[in-house]
Amino acid sequence: MPRYTAWRKAEWAKEDFDRDSGEAMCLRIVETAITTGFWSVWMTVFQDYADMRRRLIEAFQGTSEECFDHNTQPVQRAGGKI
Question: Is the sign of the CA dihedral 10, 15, 46, 57 positive or negative?
């Protein structure tokens, strides 16, 4: 159930973002994502929004920016290092 709840929150956040993509909204969405958890849910729901994905990558502790290209798409790492 927690994953479903996170998915719904992410979808509502995306709807809000589509109406208002200002800085305050972006900060609120990131804060909601951090407190809700389920990073992969947020990355999936915001898959077409590189700026929001970049913010999520930076905000979630332990997420390596080296794992993503400039468009926030996953990249192969040398030797498969994690």
Answer: negative
Task: State pTM to two decimals.
Answer: 0.87
Low-confidence ranges of the chain (pLDDT < 50): none
Taking alpha carbons only, the member of 76, 77, 16 closest to residue 49 is 16
Predicted local confidence at residue 73, as pLDDT: 87
CA separation for the pair 15, 47 (Å, rounded): 14
